[in-house]
Amino acid sequence: MVRTMSFATHRREFGRGERVVPGIWRLRLPLPWPGVPHCNAYAVAAGDGVVLFDCGLHEPGSLAQLERAMEQVGLHLRDVRLLVCTHAHSDHYGQAASVVDASGCELWMHPADAHMRGSLEDPEARLARRFEIARQSGVPAKPLRTWLASARARDSEIARLVEPDRALVTGVVVPTDLGPWTVVETPGHAPSHVCLHQPERRLLVSGDHLLGRVSLYFDYGWTPDPVGEFLSSLDAVAALDARLCLSGHGRSFTDVRAHVEANRALVAERLERVRAGVAEHGPITAYDIVPLIYGEELTQLTAGWRLPKTLCYLHHLAATGAVVSIEDGETERWALA
Ligand SMILES: [Zn+2]
Ligand SMILES: [Zn+2]
User: Fold this and answer.
1) Residues with CB under 5 A from ligand 1 (ion)
2) 318/132 Cα distance (integer angstroms)
3) Which letter does DSSP use for residue 178 in this model?
4) Residue 56, by phi and psi: left (phi above 0), alpha (psi -120 to 50) or beta?
5) Distance 109 CA to ligand 2 centre (A)
6) I need a labelling partner for 39 at 20 to 30 A (CA). Which of 31, 265, 277, 322 fits?
7) Running along the chain, 337 residues long, what does each successive block of 10 average in pLDDT?
8) What are phi and psi for residue 298, nearest 5 degrees?
9) CA separation for the pair 7, 309 (Å, rounded)
């Protein structure tokens, strides 16, 4: 999940730890994001310590929240033998450097992490690129300037770049006391996204690919068709036949197939709204399509994720031959093919 606004005044929760099944603990960590109050890390027993799946975002006091959640289930940061990140978003990778520093563990993560590196290594270039995308998408000059200023003021929520010790790709196995977990590459939500599957126990660490409460997000601009990738990744996960899903936000859930179906249905509904909007109002900008999908205008709060998602839907419809992009001066508009 990705949110682009932080509110210092947001009422904070505390980190909490709880056992999910013997040998697996959910570490619920507070987030400073409106509407997304927490994210999950999971500790899985491994020899004399644990493997940690994801680690929460970095901000003042965040490492203490992770320590607090671990202490509630009798664990400590020094027990972490390996950190495995499902993807390179700040709420899953943000504290990786802190965890590695405290425990001396290795970090394993998928190598398609340019979407994270860009904003750390050259934040001004990344902002300029976002500004240009928003401008081409028809965002008017005045809100564009406001959004850019607020994006510039925002912290990355990542402690620092820490290089993965191992590329988390198909074929890699994460050993734990509950058996080996295999890597299932699941791009779409983010190019670096993977799920971890324990086949004998039919367990799935799903990151943000499958959430208890269906909520879609796609990183725009790194691959040609994130929505298409996400749908293929849903097929890959459905074929696993997992029975317990440990997701990146919210409670774990058992009806994995129903969640896959709900995601497919929501993607189909969104795509149809976009297609119908283009059919009725095209040629139309992505900015003007947003209210047709979500029922309200883009705001400073929603621009960071609704605009990229809308662009991803448009690019998927273009990839499937339903719509075409039309350059209109410096603005991009969309029409039925
Ligand atoms: Zn995410
Ligand atoms: Zn997330």
Assistant:
1) 1, 89, 208
2) 21
3) T
4) left
5) 15
6) 265
7) 47 86 98 91 98 97 97 98 98 98 98 93 90 93 87 88 98 98 98 98 98 93 97 98 97 96 98 98 96 89 89 98 92 96
8) -65, 140
9) 22
CA geometry: angle 146, 297, 336, nearest 5 deg = 115
Model pLDDT, residue 305: 87
Sheet holding 203-207, edge to edge: 173-174, 181-185, 194-198, 203-207, 244-247
Q: Computed from CA positions of residues 139, 295, 5, 90, in that sequence, does the dihedral angle turn out positive or negative?
A: negative
Q: Measured in angstroms, how far is the CA atom of residue 78 from the centroid of ligand 1? A: 26
Residue 130: exposed, middle, or buried by beta-carbon count in 10 A (0-12, 13-18, 19+)?
buried
- CA atoms of 317 and 193, how far apart (whole Å): 22
How far apart CA 334 and CA 163 sit, in angstroms, is 40
User: Cβ(55)–Cβ(92) under 8 Å?
Assistant: yes
Q: Which ligand is nearest to the CA of 36?
A: 2
Give the ligand with the smallest distance to the CA of 115: 1
The answer to whether residues 168 and 110 touch, using CB atoms and an 8 Å cutoff, is yes
Rounded to 5 degrees, what are φ and ψ at 153?
A: -80, -10
164, 96 in Cβ contact below 8 A?
A: no
Task: Locate 41 and state its tokens.
Answer: 């890390």
Nearest to 292 by CA among 275, 317, 311, 308: 275
Q: What's the CA-to-centroid distance between 30 and ligand 2, angstroms?
A: 12
**Are the beta carbons of 308 and 218 closer than 8 angstroms?**
yes
* Residue 246 alpha carbon to ligand 2 centre in Å: 12
Q: Are strands 106-109 and 194-198 parallel, antiparallel or unpaired?
A: unpaired
* C-alpha to C-alpha distances, 225 to 190, 229, 316, nearest whole angstrom: 11, 6, 6
pLDDT at 7: 44
* Beta strands in 210-320, from DSSP E residues, in sequence order: 244-247
Q: What is the DSSP letter of 77?
A: G
Burial (CB count <10 Å: 0-12, 13-18, 19+), residue 264: middle
Cβ neighbors of 284 (< 8 A, separation 6 or more) are 277, 278, 333, 334, 335
